[in-house]
Design brief:
By secondary structure, the protein is an alpha/beta fold. It contains 12 helices and 10 strands. It has one domain: 3-Layer(aba) Sandwich (Rossmann fold). 34% of the residues lie in helices and 25% in strands. A hairpin with a 2-residue loop joins strand 1 and strand 2. Helix 6 crosses helix 8 and helix 8 runs parallel beside helix 9. The chain is globular and about 60 Å long. Bound molecules: adenosine-5'-diphosphate and magnesium ion (MG). Adenosine-5'-diphosphate binds next to helix 3. The site of adenosine-5'-diphosphate has 12 residues, from helix 3.
Length: 288
């Protein structure tokens, strides 16, 4: 039985789509947490992202980079159905999560967001106590048993416990920006998700807080699968196993522009020996 659950179910044709990587662990032996197939997202009439196909692998940190407006946030929001909350957004294609289509009939978006937590660019703690912020999700889900133990564990995991253990009843808005962001991470972890999505989680933080978040990401990937959008290429290089480079395709006839996935590979390869000229231009700063 144990053997069965640890043996990944891998589809050889899917794996062939991954370019030969430079690093030691290329993710081929890992289970795909997400299999994204021909994903297109429109806002009203205009396409923001077109034809994205890729896999996200278990206990890897996968980074999404690319110029502003190329659809990174749009993409990552598809992974836990956050785009449902944008009335004009239309999602086409498939996002399989452990083999189940997140956009299939009968899938409960609230349950999806419990398993796939999200942290945003700007820390957004509730105007409540530190404790109540972390206890929020468990309370909504009726997870009453050992609530304080659960809160403490989440704060430990988010590397915040030592700083707040004596002030759990204080308002979360009194914390520094970096602490607030770690609190938001703790809040996401308190419901024991499987995946953590982060959309530029450190871009509003100072360098020391940023480095703490990066250290934390390293710690968390033992237990979680992490997808992170970052505009900071050094950050992607430091934290990510795999990196996906998105760009904006401008139609020659001037009829529009939309985001596309240009290249997806081991981070080391994306930064040192990319296959696509557009990736090379971007990572070497030649992007105009
Ligand atoms: N809520 C929205 N309504 C309409 N258009 C949007 C919305 N969010 C993003 N867009 C558009 O979709 C495109 C991709 O945006 P976004 O996903 O935010 O890119 P990135 O995160 O890479 O900067 C942009 O053209 C942007 O203007
Ligand atoms: Mg964005």
């Amino acid at each position: 039985m144990a053997e069965e659950t640890t043996t990944p179910q891998l589809d050889p044709t899917r794996l062939a789509s991954l370019v030969e990587p430079a690093g030691t662990d290329d993710g081929r032996g890992r289970e795909a947490v997400f299999e994204i197939e021909d994903l297109t997202v429109r806002y009203g009439q205009s396409a923001a992202l077109v034809g994205v196909s890729m896999d996200v692998r278990k206990n890897f940190v996968t980074a999404f980079i690319g110029p502003s407006g190329c659809g990174k946030s749009t993409f990552i929001r598809c992974l836990n159905r956050m785009n449902d909350l944008i009335p004009s957004a239309v999602v086409e294609g498939h996002v399989l999560y452990h083999g189940t289509d997140l956009y299939g009939d009968g899938v409960d978006a609230v349950e999806v967001r419990r398993r796939i937590g999200m942290v945003f660019q700007k820390p957004n703690p509730f105007p409540k106590s530190i404790y109540d912020n972390v206890a929020f999700g468990p309370r909504v889900l009726g997870l009453k048993q050992d609530l304080s133990g659960r809160v403490e564990r989440a704060l430990h995991q988010a590397a915040l416990w030592d700083e707040v253990k004596d002030r759990l009843k204080e308002n979360a808005l009194g914390l520094s920006g970096g602490q607030q962001q770690r609190l938001c991470i703790a809040r996401a972890l308190a419901v024991e998700p499987d995946v953590l999505l982060m959309d530029e989680p450190a871009s509003a933080l100072d360098p020391i807080s940023t480095s703490r978040i990066e250290d934390l990401i390293h710690e968390l990937k033992r237990d979680y699968t992490i997808a992170i959008v970052t505009h900071n290429m050094q950050q992607a290089a430091r934290v990510a196993d795999m990196t996906a480079f998105f760009s904006v395709d401008v139609r020659e006839d001037g009829s529009g522009r939309h985001g596309v996935l240009v290249e997806y590979d081991r981070t080391s390869r994306i930064f040192t020996n990319p296959a696509d000229r557009r990736t090379e231009d971007y990572v070497t700063g030649r992007f105009g």
